[in-house]
Amino acid sequence: MELLKSKTIGLSASAKAVVSSLLESQELSKFNTDKFSVFPGFCDVHVHFREPGFSYKETILTGSRASAHGGYTSVCTMPNLNPVPDSKENVLLQKQIIDDTACINVYPYGSITVRQAGEELSDFTSMAPYAIAFTDDGKGIQQKELMREAMLKAKSLGKMIVAHCEENSLLRGGYIHDGIYAKTHGHRGICSESEFVQIERDLQLAEETGCPYHVCHISTKESVELIRQAKKRGVNVTCETGPHYLILDDSDLQEEGRFKMNPPIRSKEDKLALIEGICDGTIDMIATDHAPHSAEEKSKGLEKSAFGIVGIETAFPLMYTHFVKTGIITVEKLIDLMSLNAKARFNIQDDNSFTIWDLSSQYKIDTNDFLSMGKATPFEGYAVNGKCVLTVCNGKIVYQS
Fold this sequence. Notes:
Blueprint (H helix, E strand, L loop, with lengths): L1 H5 L6 H12 L11 E5 L1 E6 L12 H10 L2 E6 L10 H14 L3 E4 L15 H4 L6 E2 L8 H13 L4 E3 L12 E2 L2 H6 L3 E2 L2 H17 L3 E3 L5 H12 L4 E5 L1 H5 L20 H13 L4 E2 L14 H4 L10 H10 L6 H16 L7 E11 L18 E11 L2 E5 L1
Parallel strand pairs: 2-3, 3-4, 5-6, 6-9, 7-8, 9-10, 10-11
Antiparallel strand pairs: 1-12, 12-13, 13-14
Helix pairs in contact: 6-8, 8-9, 9-11
């Protein structure tokens, strides 16, 4: 029981009882518990598990197993699927696969618009009992009036709008950050304005409608400041960023598809603003935007590779190594960012879920160890601390090293 007193952070009383029982069991008694730290199961509100429709990239089975390997017990899956979850029927199709194959809690989003085409609202009412929230992630809502209509409808149903903010008219065929690397290597850049102008619009709409609003994967310094000021005004807004935006900047880019994601890795100034945002509470959550693709789709360089990287199995070791061990944030703050804040905002209950880590373990990230079908990560070969020993979801062991 000394472990429970000294090395558990944020666990419920019921979860502590499960931990105690497991550590006293014959199955786990062989482990050196002096090396263990126990955390609530992590929660990622932004993952792509690709099923139904694109199971050659990832499935709910493989994605949930990879999540458990990364210490996650709850995730929310994005709607860029086939069929798009824009109706009760299509959401239930995905939910049936989840019920049949997932080893952790998987919560599907419903799409904001029919087929994610950005022209008419999906059937929010029929989807509301089954969808964690509504998003068109991967596409920004271009029409202001349509977004206002979506916010009003979501609010009436007690649901949140989760937004990928991207102004299409400003993209100009870009595929990496419009910064020094793009200019010196002859690449077309994505300007920061394409993200933050739509965030600014949506914050005004959220303030006007009172709809709960969450911003996906922010990457620019302007986005941080807009959300900071909106929170001061009392707007009901939260936001997330990813480990890659906090650790890398565009000077780290290489001519490989594993460095391509949307939004792109931006400048050092943007990275520093994001770090300030996680320290002062402007940024509420770390989300991975885990987006697996086939090896072929990621083998075509920066220009022609598909957007997206994997991250569900590396997020905690990277954040612990680069931010806790360096003294930028405490481990308690990291658990807020990777677990407790997301569960509170999205009303996710998984009290009997936790993950046990050996924080003294040192190793280099090796994609051969991934359980995800996707292998594209900019962090291949990075030295990190922290290895997952065990993950328990709803009282059941779902990963054991």
